[in-house]
Amino acid sequence: MQICFRRLALFILIISTCAMISAQDVISAADTAHGKSTNIKHGSRTYKGDYVVSEQPVVQVHTTDSSLQKKHNPKIAIALSAVLPGAGQIYNKKYWKLPIVYGCLGVSCYFIYDFSQKMVHYRNEYRYRMTGETALLDPSLASRSDESVLSMKKSNTRYMEFAIAATGIFYLLNIIDAAVDAHLYYFDISDDLSLHFAPYFQNTFLAAPAHAGVSIALKWK
To answer: What is the model's pTM?
Structure first.
């Protein structure tokens, strides 16, 4: 009787184990069919139960989608160029334009300084002559008349004003250039677009003569 009881207990244990294994297989198959995985990922490791089944290095994924990148704002480029000329070009990553910006502004500012110094010199010379302060006169201008000194003062004043206008124009062009580059920051200039010039010939197969010329074709590769 005791032997029969042991056999019955062993038989029940075997049936229960098989049932549990079958149930796990059914759950795994159902999860797979519904696109689910019973594996648990934590960091770079994948766990199944209490065991590590795989370990992979973490890979950083980069994207070129502009909607996922920080938006390049033209207003920022305009503000930077307005506060500091050339800063908008740096924001747009157009570093090669910096020598042009600072070269134009530097030359125009130099002429402003040079013409202003000459204007002040001739103005003081004319004033000293009118007030009789001979001790302060410039000996190099002794051979020039009062009208000539006054004319040179007016000429240098006009040149200084031109240099100031040129500086303002270069300053505005610096802002406009930064704004245009910022608006065209995502513009596609890849080799997918191509412009071709090719000879053109058309035969009408009628009494009219054939036509020949040059055609322009824009193609997407």
So the answer is: 0.55
